[in-house]
Amino acid sequence: MSTVTEQLSTRHLLGIKDLTANDIQLILDTAQNFKDVLNRPIKKVPSLRDITIANVFFENSTRTRLSFELAEKRLSADIINFAASSSSVSKGETLIDTVNNILAMKVDMVVMRHPYAGAGVFLSKHVDAQIVNAGDGAHEHPTQALLDSFSIRDRLGDVAGKKVAIIGDITHSRVALSNILCLQKQGAEVMVCGPTTLIPKYITSLGVKVEHDLRRALNWCDVANMLRIQLERQDIAYFPSLREYTMLYGLNKEILDSLDKEIVIMHPGPINRGVEITSDVADSKHSIILDQVENGVAVRMAVLYLLAGQRG
Amino acid sequence: MKQSILLDGPKFQITIRRLCQQLIENHSDFSNAVLIGIQPRGTFLAERIARELKEMTGLDVPAGILDITFYRDDFRMKGTSPILANSTQIDFIVEDKAVILVDDVLWTGRTIRSAMDAIQAFGRPLKIELLVLVDRRFSRQIPIQPDYIGIQVDSIDSQKVIVSWEEADGGDSIELITDKK
After folding, report:
1. What is the Cα–Cα distance from A132 to B41, expressed in whole angstroms?
2. What is the pLDDT of residues B73-103, one digit of tens each?
3. Strands B173-178 and B2-8: what pairing?
4. How far apart are CA A236 and CA A245, in angstroms?
5. Does residue B160 lie within any of the structural domains?
6. DSSP letter assigned to residue A287
7. pLDDT tens for residues B100-116?
8. Inter-CA distances, B69 with A4, A157, A258, Å
9. What ipTM was predicted for this assembly?
10. How far is residue B16's CA from residue B173's CA, in Å, rounded to a whole number?
11. Nearest neighbour of B120 by CB, restricted to A33, A42, A305
12. With an 8 Å Cβ cutoff, are A33 and B82 in contact?
């Protein structure tokens, strides 16, 4: 048999930072196969039937949690869900204790979202399970970046050589950092655009372009990834008012129509309609926002499948 | 390493044509039959069979390809896993059809078990038949037997049977490879 065997270079998925270009390629190619599976009448495969996965969410989530849960179910894994808000965490239990108690029930993998950057890395050093980072503070959100790249590839054929503008609140966004790293590793050009106060001072050290004018950014790019203003993470006022932000950085049909080309519009969700993006743009044919959600399940299946493949 | 050719040249072609004739005998006008080649190497045989059937009967028998990677029962057992998946392409309905699974070599039977599992995800076929070019007799690990057989080979586990194809490898042949230590 001439079956090709390949595997990821990492045992956990903590961030895009740890992945090689080959890892990303492998994940996206495998995700394409899972996308085919998801279009069948029976969307379930038995690959992970002997694996138990805990979804541990210390922070609110709709899309990511549902997407992971569906991906796990479609791979036939057993799953348990844990939300910090309804748990013993409020009684003073530490992160390691909480997770070790979950692992004592014979759990193989942990999908974790946490409000603090580095929580996944910390956990991976102290517990004996494979960790998938589902977002850690303002640090990384690797599966979001992977599904964004997958969606770009799906729409435009390739990521390499494409120009992607990430627009909005860069400082508080884990999606931004993971996307920058993921796109660059695949040979895309990245620009960040937003008010000076919402762009980290040393972001240029990552090799990205910085632009403060929305129109110029849109004219430059093939793909615009609109980010949400993360009011819940902003401890001080970074701009005078939401209305002013919308006037300067909100994407509306008028600006989009005035460009001399068609660009692809993305958004990681949740959308604040009328703030960073208007409804007519979010629901237009340029927008692939719902494709991103659809592709998310296939990409997460690929990640879990490939990580599970490393268990001897 | 010792290589011995089991089949090549005109005899290879005769074998393919015989398989086609057996299919015609059982399915006559192929109104309800579909061919599905199993990835990675069964696809060549399925394409060849479809082409020969077209030549012999003038009929276009639908032919698809099926990848069974995600349905395997040995995922994570080979030490070098995971196994990279191939593509699947089935552009027709299998519900209530006579599905003819096509693979080059039948050995332990586990691939076919996975394929039967995988095909259910597309619908419930009326029946499933199995066509193989090479049947490695007496090496089955599960009770699966082919309906159409090109040639039967007696081999031991350490030997390999390799089928080469004109379109992929530059020539049609079946070889038995023995590793001499």
Report:
1. 35
2. 877 665 555 567 888 888 889 999 999 999 9
3. antiparallel
4. 15
5. no
6. B
7. 999 999 999 999 999 99
8. 11, 25, 48
9. 0.80
10. 12
11. A42
12. no
pTM of the model: 0.89
Domain locations in chain A as residue ranges: 16-140+293-308, 142-290
- Under an 8 A CB cutoff, do B122 and A41 touch? yes
Tell me which chain A residue has its CA closest to the CA of residue B161.
A1
Q: Do B82 and A36 touch (CB under 8 A)?
A: no
How high is the pLDDT of residue A57? 94
Mean of pLDDT over chain A: 93
Q: Do B88 and A1 touch (CB under 8 A)?
A: no
Q: Which of A:9-68 have CB within 8 Å of B?
A: 26, 29-30, 33-34, 36-37, 40-47
Rounded Cα gap, residues A53 and A59, in angstroms: 18
Locate A290 and state its tokens. Answer: 């719902």
CA separation for the pair B43, A180 (Å, rounded): 40
Closest CA to A186 of A212, A149, A233, A138: A149
Chain B residue closest to A51 (CA)? Answer: B76
Chain A: nearest CA to B121, how far in angstroms?
5
For A16-140+293-308, give the CATH class.
alpha beta
Q: Which domain holds residue B65?
A: 8-72+83-155
Whether residue A36 and residue B87 make contact (CB cut-off 8 A), yes or no, is yes
**Amino acid, res. A237:** A
For residues A301 and A76, give the distance between their C-alpha atoms in angstroms, rounded to a whole number.
11
The dihedral built from the CA positions of residue B82, B83, B87 and B92, taken in this order, carries a sign that is: negative
B80 in A contact zone (CB under 8 Å): yes
